[in-house]
Hints:
This protein has 3 helices and 5 strands. The chain has helices at about 25-45, 90-100, 120-135; strands at about 70-75, 75-80, 85, 110-115, 140.
Amino acid sequence: MGAKVGGGGGSKFDLGQNSDMNVTPFVDVMLVLLIIFMVSIPAATVSIKLDLPPAIPPPPGTKVKEPTLINIQRGQAIFIGEAATNMDRLVGDLSAQLARDEPAIPPTEQRVYIRADRDVLYGDFMAVMNTLQGNGFYQVALINEEL
């Protein structure tokens, strides 16, 4: 609480009460928080290496390769394109499919897309991801569809 410094007609030492809010501590705290955020934001944007496709579209008339798509359905039903497979045969079937589609590039260096149904359990989805990454398939993209 502050005090008034002048006037009032009371005695010499009667300053009275000031009911105005003292905003100086509030401004000080805001400036300190601003400085903290300004210092910490650049540290939070640590560069993460991403393998993004180029933004330049292919020239007209260029044949675009259909992506290799892994579909996961509830009950551990897994499909590579339209062909059914299971967890034991997933890596072999995927390698064979990728070798047929693009024989010049090793299968583990090609991009694979994964789409899962809404009802698929998280553990089943992560089992497929871990199987792929454990066998060298690191270029895995997830497909999200708007509902």
